[in-house]
Write a structure and sequence with these properties.
The protein contains eight helices and twelve strands. By secondary structure, the protein is of the alpha/beta class. Strands 1, 2, 5, 6, 7, 8, 11 and 12 form an eight-stranded mixed β-sheet that branches. A two-stranded antiparallel ribbon has the order 3-4. A two-stranded parallel ribbon has the order 9-10. The radius of gyration is 19 Å and the shape is globular.
Length: 262
């Protein structure tokens, strides 16, 4: 069985009738959700510029795979959801500052993040890829990246992949900016999630860049919360239910044509 997520409104708009009360989740025990006239609110931080995971459609509405998954989680928890948009490089600072309770933005699970945040059960599994100019034959493996220039979001795991391979890294806000620099010949390579890159190539029709190789890394993405959040086990339980009843598979197939949730 699958379920249809509630209508997704623009960022920072509550998807429920009733006004948000003045208290914030930072005042709730365990970093839980804030209170509103309609009950607890799940406050979510996301980029809103990272297609197909979190972006605005032609009507200006916030949508995407991550947006639909976290909205389905909120539905399962019986909570209205409020989105706040921010850049990737400041998204964890916003979580730590208690501006929202959970980050829904393809947060890759790694040891450093496990040490600093609560991470939910994974809801996406993907592979890393390197993207180069279409006519570039000099980069076909990680060994070829040493001494090259890569464009990456400063705090992303792909930035670390590029550095570990010996690349000089220039900071960008996201995939779109990295692709622009690549096409301008200002960088040599950019690393990212294969799902994001394939969506970019499909939606843009851009033939001036290509996937040079897979990094060999299988990565899992999760929702990030503050350490000790009382929402973490609830979100995990909701994800287990959504996986078992087919909702995650249905959302995956809508966006990618296959189940990427496990």
């Amino acid at each position: 069985m699958s379920r249809t997520p509630r209508r997704l409104l623009a960022a920072s708009v509550l998807l429920a009738v009733g006004a948000l009360a003045a208290c914030s989740s930072g005042d709730a025990p365990g970093g839980g959700a804030s209170a509103s006239a309609g009950g607890d609110v799940l406050r979510v931080g996301t980029e809103g510029t990272y297609s197909p995971f979190t972006f605005h459609d032609a009507d200006g509405e916030l949508t995407g795979y991550d947006v639909e998954v976290i909205t389905a989680v909120a539905d399962e928890l019986g909570m209205p959801v409020e989105f706040s948009e921010t850049t990737w490089d400041s998204i964890f600072a916003g979580l730590e500052a208690k501006r929202y309770d959970v980050v829904a933005n393809q947060v890759t699970i790694n040891d450093e993040r496990k040490g600093k945040y609560d991470l939910s059960a994974p809801y996406t599994v993907s592979t890393g890829v390197a993207v180069v100019a279409a006519d570039d034959t000099s980069i076909t493996s990680l060994a070829d990246v040493s001494g090259k220039t890569a464009a990456q979001s400063a705090t992303s795991n792909w930035s670390q992949v590029a550095r570990d391979a010996g690349a000089q890294v220039e900071s960008v806000e996201g995939l779109t900016q990295a692709m622009a620099l690549l096409k301008q010949g200002r960088i040599d390579v950019t690393f990212n999630d294969d799902l994001a890159v394939l969506d970019y190539l499909k939606s843009s029709g851009d033939t001036s860049v290509k996937i040079a190789f897979e990094t060999g890394d299988t990565v899992e993405q999760a929702f990030a919360l503050r350490k000790g959040s009382d929402l973490t086990p609830k979100i995990d339980e909701a994800l287990a239910t959504l996986r078992a009843d087919g909702t995650l598979a249905t959302i995956s197939e809508k966006w990618f044509g296959q189940d990427v949730s496990q």
